Each structure stands twice: as structure tokens, then as C-alpha cells.
């Protein structure tokens, strides 16, 4: 599987806005939400963190499960980048195996090993070509425990964040989905959606204002990044909370977060 080029290590960490494991406060809250969902599984022995990068998300997830729920599952943490996995391994975390995994290929676990929980957060939007996203999710679904395993998947909502179907304001995003597209890709990959939540939910009336910004961005492509930042600022002013909540009528979330089980 091929990914868009990522920012150099530390690009976000040198910015006060992105001090928390490089994925920002939005990402941190998604991992807290994932841990909360995982804590309700009857048996929590093995958890997978796919797209783990340099291991910061894995370390955060492990510590959060330990400190808040007294859970200490074995963590399988994978990424396409061998360099990131080398950095992750230097953390010398206990009860964790970091490994390189191309999710266009099946995941080779030990016989009779299944994941009680799997986390696929802030990853699908970076996969290219886009049709490989479904294959990646399907390969993770294949190793979920068929009885009680859950998978938490997130995606930006292109209704809020994209100029059109293919061009995101974020230069590192290969694709984004609206709710119907996000649901289709999950179910076609072999998952049953238990519930879809939203993070940073924006009233439709505000989205109409954002449409004006999108229109200006289409007319001035050279200012794409600046318009993206302006949209983020407007969204932040309207909805300062990062909480992940059930979807609300009359609102569009900045991000979808789905809790899924195996079909």
C-alpha cells in the first residue's frame, strides 16, 4: 500500500498546536474514545493499532487503557513505514510488538490469534490509490475476533473539509468521504457498523458560510492552504469541543468515527 508523503518527523511536534503525539488534540480525543469503546469488550487480550507511525499513538493508547481501565492487553502496532517502525521500537515498550505491514496484503498473525480490538484512526484518508482503503479495512476485519471484536475507524468528512470529491484542503490527504461513502466502504470491507459518531459537529447554517469560502478557494487555487486554515478557524470558533458524540440532525461533523464489529 502506498501512502502520501508524510510531514517530516517533528513538523507538528514543534508547533504548540500539535504537541500531543503529532496528531493533535483531535487525534488524542479519538484515541481516548477508542480506549473507552475497547474497555467494554468482555475479553481484552490483544489490540491492534494500524498506521501507528512512530509509536506515539500506541504508547498513548496503552497508557490510557492501563491508567483508566486497569487493562494491559498485548499491543500489535503496524505501519507501512519501516523508518517509523524503527523509531517506534526505540521506545522499548513492554507488551508491544511493532512491525511493518502493507495492508494491501493479508495480516499474518500467529495461528488462532484474533484481535479483540483494532484501531484505524486518521489513516484511511492517507491511503492511495483510494480504492485500496477498502482492502486495508477488509484485511484488518479478517483478523478481528468474530464473537466480540470491535474496530474503531475514523475519516474526515469531505462535506466539511473538501473543495470537491478529490481535492482536500489538506495536502497529505489522498481522499475523504461523506457519510454514505464512509458507511459503504466499511460494510463492503466486511464490517457491521454498530454506530457512527461525529467529532466537531457543525450546524448546517455554518456550512453554508463555509461554502462561500470553498467557492473563493476554487477561484484562487494558489491560496488553497490559506482557505483551509480559515475554514478550520471558523469551525473551531463555532464548535470548540473535540468531544466525539452521536450524530445530530442539522449538523455535519468534521470527522466521522465508526464503531464496528465483524459481519
UniProtKB/TrEMBL annotation:
CDD domains: AdoMet_MTases. Keywords: Methyltransferase, Transferase. Pfam families: Methyltransf_23 (PF13489). GO terms for biological process: methylation. One of its GO terms (molecular function) is methyltransferase activity. This is Putative S-adenosylmethionine-dependent methyltransferase. It comes from Candidatus Gottesmanbacteria bacterium GW2011_GWA1_34_13.
Amino acid at each position: 500500500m502506498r501512502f502520501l508523503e508524510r510531514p517530516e518527523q517533528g513538523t507538528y511536534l514543534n508547533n504548540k498546536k500539535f504537541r500531543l503525539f503529532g496528531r493533535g488534540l483531535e487525534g488524542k480525543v479519538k484515541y481516548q474514545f477508542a480506549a473507552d469503546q475497547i474497555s467494554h469488550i468482555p475479553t481484552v487480550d490483544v489490540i491492534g493499532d494500524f498506521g501507528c507511525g512512530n509509536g506515539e499513538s500506541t504508547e498513548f493508547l496503552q497508557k490510557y487503557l492501563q491508567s483508566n481501565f486497569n487493562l494491559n492487553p498485548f499491543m500489535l502496532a503496524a505501519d507501512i513505514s519501516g523508518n517509523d517502525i524503527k523509531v517506534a521500537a526505540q521506545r522499548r515498550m513492554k507488551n508491544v510488538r511493532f512491525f511493518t505491514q502493507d495492508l494491501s496484503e493479508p495480516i499474518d498473525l500467529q495461528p488462532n490469534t484474533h484481535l479483540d480490538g483494532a484501531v484505524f484512526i486518521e489513516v484511511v484518508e492517507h491511503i492511495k490509490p483510494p480504492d485500496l482503503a477498502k482492502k486495508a479495512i477488509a484485511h484488518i476485519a479478517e483478523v478481528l475476533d468474530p464473537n466480540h471484536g470491535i474496530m474503531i475507524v475514523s475519516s474526515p468528512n469531505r462535506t466539511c473539509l473538501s473543495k470537491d470529491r478529490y481535492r482536500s484542503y489538506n495536502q497529505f490527504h489522498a481522499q475523504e468521504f461523506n457519510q454514505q461513502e464512509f458507511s459503504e466502504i466499511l460494510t463492503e470491507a466486511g464490517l457491521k457498523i454498530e454506530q457512527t459518531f461525529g467529532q466537531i459537529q457543525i450546524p448546517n447554517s455554518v456550512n453554508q458560510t463555509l461554502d462561500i469560502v470553498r467557492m473563493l478557494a476554487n477561484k484562487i487555487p494558489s491560496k488553497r492552504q490559506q482557505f483551509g486554515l480559515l475554514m478550520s478557524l471558523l469551525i473551531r470558533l463555532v464548535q470548540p469541543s473535540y468531544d466525539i458524540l452521536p450524530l445530530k440532525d442539522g449538523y455535519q461533523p468534521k470527522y466521522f468515527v465508526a464503531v464496528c464489529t465483524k459481519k
